[in-house]
Amino acid sequence: MNNNPFANTNSVIKRRENPRGKYAQLNTEDLLDAVKLSANSLHRGYLDILLEIFLFRYNEKQTALDQLNQNLEERIALQLKLAQDAQKRYEQQAKMAAMGEMMDAVAHQWKQPLNAISMMSDMLVDDFSGELVNQEYLDEFSQDIQTQIQHMVSTLTEFRNFFRPKETKESFGVKRSLSSVLILVNDEFMKNNINIHIESDQEILIFGIENEFKHLVLNIINNAKDAFNEQDIKVRDIYINFSKTEAMISLHIRDNAGGIPAKVIQHIFKPEVTTKVDGKGTGIGLYMSTQIAEKLGGTLSVKNVEDGAMFSLEVPL
Ligand SMILES: Nc1ncnc2c1ncn2[C@@H]1O[C@H](COP(=O)(O)OP(=O)(O)OP(=O)(O)O)[C@@H](O)[C@H]1O
Ligand SMILES: [Mg+2]
């Protein structure tokens, strides 16, 4: 059945018809028919009312569209805020986790010199009773104590620097920065029988926030430490090498901890991907590391090689 009231040539839109009246109910096609009919008839004057209906309809659509756009903007803003909140939470969690691990490392690192100092003071008392204490003895004693304290101070300084919020980018030496990280974790890695080999000699400079770079390295070597323990590997080595060409800075960190399981490796850089049980891992370490790599203007990737995993940071120049 044809509902078009203009299909019948006798149908005529009455002049001064209310544009919001029943003609406004017609669908666009019927309205167009009416326009054609009106344009070809003597009643061209009716075109204005039809035009008004079109305009009215257009305005309604436009308002609906504006509303939709606004809703969309609000929804995008909300999603963006949720994503930013999650990012902040990840950063905070990563920082807390790193701080916890570092506290362990520092506590560990302090235990040995504190024991040494305590032992030396006992010996001093004994040796004094045994009348062995002379000027030479005291000089040596003081020197030994200084060495121990120096070790504690340097650990603490590195620890404080690591967590001092520093947002300025600057050029820093990769080799020097790696040594700083190793000062902090040295005893912890020694206790776990892990040998870290720095294979490159030549210092290279990289531009970025140094503490973030240290954090990236720490995340990767701590993961290797966990993998060594989980896989119960006997001889444990981590090899670190870095180089700079005209086009690229590369840093490779390789371990022999058995590699990353196939089903984990594709998702490894996503947040909250972890294989560690009992809350031992949050799965944020590598996610944060990719963010840091991006801030340095580069990328972080991983592949399994021989008997372990190799992480590569590559920064195009
Ligand atoms: N060197 C490695 N060898 C084997 N598996 C690894 C290695 N590095 C990472 N993985 C795997 O990748 C997962 C994700 O690592 P990521 O550092 O992101 O999180 P996590 O170590 O589990 O937790 P978090 O770092 O937040 O404490 C680990 O749970 C582990 O399964
Ligand atoms: Mg980790």
Quick gist of this model?
The protein is of the alpha+beta class and 317 residues long.
Overview of the molecule:
- It is a single chain.
- This protein is α+β, with helices and mostly antiparallel strands and 317 residues long.
- It has a domain at 170-317: Heat Shock Protein 90, CATH 3.30.565.
- It is 57% helix and 15% strand.
- The protein has helices spanning 28-40, 47-129, 135-163, 174-191, 210-231, 262-265, 285-295; strands spanning 170-173, 194-198, 205-208, 236-244, 248-255, 299-305, 308-316.
- The strands form two sheets. Strands 2-4-5-7-6 form a five-stranded mixed sheet. Strands 1-3 form a two-stranded antiparallel sheet.
- A hairpin with a 2-residue loop joins strand 6 and strand 7.
- Helix 1 (28-40) runs antiparallel to helix 2, helix 2 (47-129) runs antiparallel to helix 3 (135-163) and helix 2 packs across helix 4 (174-191).
- The chain is elongated.
- 23% of the residues are buried.
- Bound molecules: adenosine-5'-triphosphate and magnesium ion.
- Residues 219, 222-223, 281, 285 line the site of magnesium ion.
- Adenosine-5'-triphosphate binds next to helix 5 and helix 7.
List the helices and strands and how they pair.
Layout: H1 28-40, H2 47-129, H3 135-163, E1 170-173, H4 174-191, E2 194-198, E3 205-208, H5 210-231, E4 236-244, E5 248-255, H6 262-265, H7 285-295, E6 299-305, E7 308-316
Parallel strand pairs: 2-4
Antiparallel strand pairs: 1-3, 4-5, 5-7, 6-7
Bound molecules: adenosine-5'-triphosphate and magnesium ion.
